[in-house]
Fold each of these.
Amino acid sequence: MPCPLCDNTSTWSFCQIDQAPVICNALSPTRERALLVDKARIELVFCPGCGLIYNSAYDPARIAYTGDYENSLFFSSRFREYARQQAMDLVRTHNLLRKRIVEIGCGNGDFLREICEIGNNIGAGFDPAAPAREISTNVRLVPREFDPSRDALDADLVCCRQVLEHIWSPRRFLSELRRSIGRGGTTLFLEVPNALWMLRRGDLWDVIYEHCAYYTPLALRRVLAMSGFLAGEVHPVFGEQFLTVEAVPAHVNNIHPCDDGMHEIETLVRQFQSSCVRNMSFWQERLATMYKNGATAAVWGSGSKGVTFLNALNAPLEVIPWVVDINPRKHGRYIPGAAQRVIPPEELLSHACDSVIVMNPIYIEEISRTLQSLDIQCELLTA
């Protein structure tokens, strides 16, 4: 299958997962339904023409984002600090005071509300999983995908955070945005997961079916250039887990050869499979030892990392019966495929838990403080 960004056919496959839940961020209401969720194959392919990594086995027809989709990170103080600083920086840099903001893929509208409150801006958010409501006097949510043919982009800032990796035809999507913007002074702000962070860690837990594409800085600059935008500097943020970039409509062709840093990406791609095998072997042995000793553990984080970790390892419920999450909208539900029950942190007090496995190291200090406040004594591990 040719690259969905640059149409290059000289690509190569480097990682496969046979049975991955199609939707990680829609938890199941019962354990029985969690065991029966739709699963599909993932085959990661690298394109040396533009630096994109993508799932060649992806079928967009299998994906549906509904009201059950829940991936808000705003219950974390660590993430709220990051998002608020990001909003403040955008307001300051672009003088976003009493301006118009559009967010494509707004989720529950947390970030949109933040940036509108800081600058007294007017915001509109589009997301098929969003509730149809006004969340403040100047922010409204629209529960459907943004449609450039019917939704005018008369905005000073267009935000698209953690969305592009879900889109199979990124060039078409961004080109339609470019046409909607016209020749005005609109700034486009993009945030995507950083593929380099995943590759350097050999982090299989970051590979999910919902993400059909994984962007390196090279690929991010390339797709913007090919879609009619002039991109600024690409910044690794949030512990280098994400990439952000600002872009404006370009009026001339600005596509340049995409080779700077490609050798490093190719090297990391070639090492990724063996790194994943080592990580998998380590955790398989660790869980086997826990099972032998009658020990139990809880995974902290019921998002995509936790779902992939539990499914890839086929983690037995006898060893990992619970997944802890601070998002109350997830409590009492079950992990797709693996079927662990999601519980709030305080429920660990009623369980004999020997270890807590933290899925994202950036939250380790926050999680440690929470466990200390609850006087929960257990080993803290990082996946």
Note: The longest strand covers residues 12-21.
Amino acid sequence: MTLPRLLLFASTLAFLSACAAPRKPAPAVPAPPRPTPVAVAPAPPPADWRDAAITPGGWAYGTSVAGSRAAFSAGTGEPLLTLACQRGAGQVVVTRAGAASGSVPLTVTTTTQVRSFTAAPDPADPRALTVALPARDALLDAVAFSRGRFMVEVPGLPTLYLPAWPEVGRVIEDCR
């Protein structure tokens, strides 16, 4: 091809492409109707407590003159469960958030033990229940070495499925 023919071909092609009809906008599609909310029943508890979802949150460890403390909080700042070493008394105090008018059963379940205690309202905080255990109580070892989690139940309060993180074992060892 010669140069004039090539220029004529290119200009004809450009001219024809400019003659194409403009595109029409797509028709507006109406928004689908909003579905009506359906009430969903809470899931039944699992057959085995070890299959339940871990309670959301995490452990925090701290020390004071009186001893060390591990607190499990769900992000609200207020701990759901606390293990505190009282070195002078040689005991670990388990504190569960929740109010009660009197003593209530508190059950701790690990992979190797299940024990129930009588929890009393905390005199310093009426919105908490406490149980004091000797620092060498075998249940504390079972909690620290439970396979991944342990469970704390108090009637009338949500059951806690807590991870057995190192903070728990550290408080127990600090107290011994």
Note: The two ends are 98 Å apart (CA to CA).
